[in-house]
Design brief:
12% of the residues lie in helices and 31% in strands. It is mainly β. The protein has helices at 11-19, 28-31, 77-82, 127-130, 193-196, 201-212, 219-223; strands at residues 32-48, 55-60, 68-73, 95-103, 109-117, 123-126, 162-165, 239-244, 249-254, 261-265, 287-293, 296-302, 322-331, 334-342, 351-361. The chain is globular and about 70 Å long. The chain folds into two domains: 11-130, OB fold (Dihydrolipoamide Acetyltransferase, E2P), CATH 2.40.50.140; 162-361, no CATH class. Residues 1-25 and 128-138 have low confidence and may be disordered. It has a nine-stranded mixed sheet, with no helix packed on it. The protein contains seven helices and 15 strands.
């Protein structure tokens, strides 16, 4: 599989790209090996400032007549901008030192953890910093913004902009147990599989397989499938609510994944029985009906298909998945998200978890667009 073309390259570089595997946005460990550190010194020959990952291409002289070309993969441009990097931070011909990790398949590709200018020693990129979005968590929280009738606003106050991001948890774990895993939901220790949720045997084995494969088959990254279920509240790019009170519905716009949206109906329509999607209505987000219970929006959702991962980390689900989500905004900076998972097709019992998201003021959702990895 290879990514759709990113642009016209020099002849030698184009030939190299035709033979080297380049995948779409992914769990870093699926492509790169933390146990294979690498330090590279060379000169920048091309910069691809494109989603879902930016790339540098560098020429490395190894003593032969021709230079060796390496592809250096970086965070998404969205994350890099938040870290202070832009497309002009490096220029063609700049000498750099890259420290990172090598590709698992032995190809000349590396994930950059830091990039330093050789001429000045200036560190122009530190990847952990690039992964942190700006948020209002350090600010003193203002009161919850409300509509004239007193109902909490899920979106910005009049005349303001902002969205929700920086979730305090990025995977589903029963009772919010602290199980070591990365931002993609990849377990640090595979033995923790049985601690995550009350999985039926088939679902437990599938979850372990996805983990052992470093989440490389994630349909959101491979094919830009929507992040249905709680996953939309786990993405680093965040989400934004638009409340259409005239038509009694709420739109949840997704910052990452396929940049899609979900509709939550608040018009007192009843939830239906078993639902199934079709070609025109695949129900990646299910059918969501909601009502306000004082200051908490309670969302009842069912009718999902099985074509997506409903959580970072690859927890399985079946078409029997039924979610009860509870959203509340105790102050202007905090969104509390709680979910109860009822799926007798994949779990031995009902279970719950929850986390918080933080308000990013003065900004719209990131300009992130998914690029699929179809062959």
């Amino acid at each position: 599989m290879r990514r759709r073309a990113l642009g016209v390259l020099a002849a030698g570089l184009g030939v190299w790209l035709a033979t080297a595997p380049v995948v779409a946005h992914h769990e870093i460990a699926a492509k790169f090996d933390e146990n294979k550190p690498v330090t590279l010194k060379g000169f920048v020959s091309k910069i691809d400032w494109l989603n879902p990952h930016a790339h540098l291409f560098i020429n490395i002289q190894d003593g032969s007549a021709a230079a060796t070309i390496w592809a250096i993969e970086l965070e998404s441009p969205v994350a890099l901008r938040k870290a202070g990097w832009n497309r002009d931070s490096l220029k063609i011909g700049d000498g750099i030192t890259v420290r990172g990790i090598s590709a698992r398949d032995g190809s000349r590709q590396a994930w950059a953890k830091s990039v330093v200018l050789i001429s000045s020693g200036k560190r122009i990129l530190e990847v952990p910093a690039a992964s942190q979005a700006s948020a209002s968590r350090g600010n003193q929280a203002a009161p919850t913004p409300r509509w004239p009738d007193g109902q909490p606003r899920l979106g910005p106050a009049p005349g303001q902009t902002g969205y929700w991001a920086n979730p305090s948890a990025t995977a589903l774990v029963e009772n919010a147990a602290k199980i070591p895993m990365d931002a993609y939901g990849l377990l640090r220790t595979i033995a923790d599989v049985d601690k995550v949720a009350p999985l039926q045997r088939w679902a437990r084995d599938l979850y372990e397989l996805r983990q052992r494969n470093f989440l490389k088959d994630d349909p959101m990254f491979l094919y830009c499938k929507p992040p249905g279920g709680p996953r939309q509240f786990q993405l680093s790019e965040g989400l934004q609510f638009v409340e259409d009170r005239d038509r009694k519905r709420i739109f949840a716009f997704i910052g990452g994944g396929d940049h899609n949206y979900r509709i939550i109906y608040t018009d007192n329509r009843p939830q239906q029985g078993q639902l199934r999607g079709d070609a025109d209505n695949p129900l990646y987000y299910g059918r969501a009906v909601a009502k306000w219970e004082k200051d908490t929006l309670v969302v009842d959702t069912k009718g999902f298909n099985e074509k997506f991962w409903f959580s970072n980390g690859g927890l399985p689900h079946s078409e029997q998945l039924h979610l009860i989500e509870r959203l509340s905004r105790p102050d202007a900076n905090t969104l509390n998200y709680e979910v109860t998972v009822d799926d007798p097709g994949a779990y031995t019992r009902t279970w719950s978890t929850g986390w918080n998201l933080h308000w990013v003021p003065g900004e719209e959702l990131p300009l992130y667009f998914c690029q699929d990895n179809r062959p």
